[in-house]
Design a protein that fits this description.
The structure is a homodimer of 401-residue chains. With 401 residues, chain A is an alpha/beta fold. Chain A has helices at residues 47-52, 63-68, 72-78, 81-85, 97-103, 129-139, 157-183, 220-233, 249-259, 277-285, 295-301, 340-348, 352-378, 382-393, and strands at 6-13, 16-22, 27-30, 32-34, 36-37, 58-61, 90-93, 107-109, 114-117, 124-127, 143-145, 209-214, 237-240, 269-271, 290-292, 304-307, 310-313. In chain A, the strands form 4 sheets. Chain A has a 9-stranded parallel β-sheet with strand order 4-15-14-13-12-11-7-6-5. Chain A has a 3-stranded antiparallel β-sheet with strand order 1-2-3. A 3-stranded antiparallel β-sheet of chain A has the order 8-9-10.
Chain lengths: 401, 401
């Protein structure tokens, strides 16, 4: 049977892997960072920059947000999220589960699914494994996430176990409904004519891929059990959910070290919603392949720049007459042209160009870091890259945001 | 003596003129619309787009705003506004007079100048013809504006006359101080090595140009007198100030019709701070060559798009499923790619990409309209262009913002 995506590991260096995911829309080299387009757009950065300058091959869209606004009827009218947003490279959509559990207070969880009130207008809404699969089919992403329940990072064992059990049942239901939807052609992301989009192997079916999610909070035994049950169902890739949700960093790193190497080697491994450049490097050292996080754009909007020498806060008065770029080692179009002093002025003056420029640089820095990571894995020098990268990051400790 | 700018009329069609202004930094075809970069940046639109896509040859900077923030010491540190903002094409700076009289309530006007409180922090500040010239020399713009007093659009004759007299004395003082500053090399906009910037005629001196401003509110006799007294002092170009400041549109059009053709033919004519596409076409029909206005970006930020078929407000629910571009006749990168439905969604979702995209389109529309105007003047068909352009603008009257 033809595959929805094709995944190949090209090089392994310790636990770190360099690989390539072929989808119907893009060829994606891993480890990869996926910019987050929550509402169908990367905040403050036009797609033209993401394509031509940063060469982002895959971005994320959020089911919860798009389900509520503009709503699936509108997305369907336009023929899916690719056509609606005019992004013709790969997309991954999350299931909406995480947002329901983190953004809304008023929710009622049952075996069937979760009833909640929209954070936008208080309207009553319902999401379940089946609804999430239907929404993600309409969005037409290349990679669909199973609908899960995400417990808090510090959840006790009993709570976590109950959540894990529910997530396992929902994963099965997600897969069943997903397969039905694929068979009846509900996926709006299909490309007409050339199902591979000219970018994928001819053996690819052009259908969506479905990833399962491993939960279990900080409990290693439950993480192992969740992984085994998820793998038993069988997915095109596996994600680690429920990290960076309030737990200590040592707990997150402990879970990564324990769990990631146990995940199926022959499938991409995706760490959801994490994190800083340091976090990404750490996770890669344990064999994670895919990442997304809002930090580059969220910090960008409040003046926080990620650089090769650590974070800096452009609001700091010491940058008033600084004619250096945000990161002297960065080759992005912002760093090639604009000084810290100028960007600081724009920020202080309330000009949105400050937010768009810092967000742009931050994404470029994340994507460029991933390129360097891949190169180091390919040349068998990831450990050295990692220690040099982390040492340089600490140079400007005083500039921490 | 070599000239700061070189101005040639290429074609005349009725009163309308097509010409070219050569400065040390750009060759500027007229009639020209100058995007407004109040605080050293065009709001929401990166310079890269203005250069590569819209081919804007000259933009505006506001002395009042930059004087208060980041302040002249910072601008001087960076070596002028071009270097600070990394805009290497031509710039025009206003004198600060208009903003002092429109933005601040607390001000004390004397013969010497105007004392006022900053709208940012309430600090006591002072602007005069001399200070304005010093600030504009530090900014280093290609075109400097004389420091004037701008009376309200509905000012009575006595007030207007007093203001006109003061403006005439200030014009003289502006010119004297301007010349001193040029001689002592205070202009920070000079290009090292090649004073013409490779874009100007070798006969250009590389120094700044100074424009005088005609006031007189809606009183035609005072407008004429102001023009004569300003022309007598002698400037590199002449501007019409004090329009679109609260008077009826018929008054503005009356002043334009009366005044513009009387302005020195051998100098560029600049209508300050005006206006809609209709206003620009009207002024061009009376022989105006240069324009600036915040409308394209200000309206863009609140969802107002200027199109060849009239204005539209993207917030309107009728655009929810509209898969047309903002303007189907526009070739800008926004209209080539994004639909009204998508941009409306971004606007409603509070995504700043909506503001940046509509602002981008609006500027592209203004600049493209000027290109078409120039072409029509060159081919002797401005009258037909004008009537067709205005008729088409009225097609979507129901969509008026």
């Amino acid at each position: 049977m033809s595959k929805p995506i094709d995944w190949k590991i090209l090089n392994v260096d310790g636990e770190a892997r360099a690989g390539v995911i072929r989808t119907r829309r893009s060829v994606i080299e891993t480890p990869v960072f996926m910019p987050v387009g929550t509402q169908g757009a990367i905040k403050g950065v036009r797609s033209e920059w993401l394509e031509a300058e940063m060469d982002a091959r895959i971005i994320l869209g959020n089911t919860y947000h798009l389900f509520l606004r503009p709503g699936i009827e509108v997305i369907k009218h336009f023929g899916g999220l690719h056509r609606f947003s005019s992004w013709d490279r790969a997309m991954l959509t999350d299931s909406g589960g995480f947002q329901v559990f983190s953004l809304t207070d008023l929710r009622k969880l049952t075996e069937e699914g979760v009833e909640f009130r929209s954070h936008l207008d208080g309207s009553r809404q319902f999401l379940s494994p089946e609804v999430s699969m239907e929404v993600q089919a309409a969005l037409g992403s290349e990679i669909v996430m199973a609908f899960d329940e995400c417990p808090p990072g510090n959840a006790d064992k009993e709570t976590t176990r109950a959540s894990l059990e529910l997530t396992a049942r929902w994963a099965m239901r997600s897969k069943d409904r997903f397969n039905e939807l694929q068979e009846k052609g509900a996926d709006l992301g299909k490309r007409e004519g050339d199902p591979s989009g000219g970018l994928a192997e001819p053996t690819l079916s052009g259908r969506q891929a479905l990833f399962g999610i491993v939960q279990g909070a900080g409990h290693l035994d439950l993480r192992k059990e969740s992984l085994e049950r998820t793998a038993e169902i069988g997915f095109d890739g596996y994600a680690i959910g429920g990290l960076s949700v309030g737990e200590e960093k040592s707990v997150m790193y402990g879970v990564l070290e324990y769990l990631a190497p146990k995940m199926p080697k022959e499938r991409p491994r995706y760490l959801m919603g994490v994190g800083t450049p340091e976090d990404l490097i750490e996770a890669i050292s344990h064999g994670v392949d895919m990442f997304d996080c809002v930090m580059p754009t969220r910090n960008g909007r409040t003046g926080g720049a990620f650089t090769s020498r650590g974070k800096l806060n452009i609001r700091n008065a010491k940058f008033i007459k600084d004619d250096q770029p945000l990161d002297p080692d960065c080759i992005c179009s912002v760093c090639q042209r604009y000084s810290r002093g100028y960007i600081r002025h724009l920020y202080q003056a309330g000009e949105m160009n400050a937010a768009t420029m810092i967000s742009h640089h931050n994404l470029a820095f994340y994507l460029d870091t991933m390129r360097r990571v891949r190169q180091s894995i390919k040349s068998g020098s990831f450990a050295r890259f990692r220690s040099e990268f982390l040492e340089k990051l600490r140079e400007n400790e005083d500039a921490i945001v």
